Amino acid sequence: MSTMTPTEKAILKTILYFDVFDYPLTEEQLLFYLMEVKTSRKALRQSLQTAAMTALLEARGSYWFVRGRGSLVTARSRMEQQASALWTMAARSAARIRHLPFVRGIYLSGDLSKGVAGHDSDIDFFIITAGRRVWVCKVALAIFRRIPGFNPRKLLCFNYLLSEDHLELEDKTLYTAAEVTGLAPLYGLQLFQRFMQKNRWVAVFFPNYYLAPNPNHCIFHGASGLQKVLEWPLKNILIDGLEALLPKIWKTVWGWRYRKDTPTRDALLRGICERYSKSHGYPTEGEVLEAYAERLQAKEI
Known about the structure:
Elements: H1 6-19, E1 25-26, H2 27-33, H3 41-48, H4 51-56, E2 57-60, E3 63-66, H5 71-97, E4 103-109, H6 110-113, E5 123-129, H7 134-145, E6 156-163, H8 174-182, E7 184-187, H9 189-198, H10 225-231, H11 237-257, H12 262-270, E8 272-273, E9 276-278, H13 285-298
């Protein structure tokens, strides 16, 4: 593949990465997810029509995918239909979650943030919390999930909680960059913009990330009066102490619960920090990057 131009290599690498998720890309998505190369829409279209690209890629309708993987287009259409109902549930949940103590931003991640949902997809939320309140907020969210009627299909997952006073992510990997770029804000747009400013390193992987339509999804704005009332009794030294104690309790509980499953235990324990709470999903980051590396090797990139 040494004869390919930098843009052609970037196109192939991008489509191969999303092939791991069985996700064909529209031209619009290909432009803002394009890896490592900053280019224009016109230059992208020209590169897609070269002999090198047509030998490796196919297009059907508005979707681009690896040659021979045309079934992904039909699957994506079906998954987009399934996502519609989950988006409604996500919006309804966000309307309630925004009132919980110390919730400052609510953002969809995972499949649903990209407009698709499989039969086993969850509603994955990335939550930004008030400073020094990640773990108290996590308890509030855990209670919320168990309130009758608030999580009827058991689909709500709060995979990542991050303190608003430590917005820069520590894991600066391709996987993390793709998840950040794909976040769909439902509440807390100004905070989301601050978050993206703190994580401009994603441009190393996705130079066109600023073109992503993230802000278009935001449907809730302004502070919650109910939240202020709920937070008032929780702003004291006792809650400060509880915030410091909770991650230690989580480590003990998860360490014991997954003592016979070392990979899961280690992944969960790495996600416990005073500044954030991160629960690994499936497939895990390691599995995704390994599958991507195998695709690159097969194409000799």
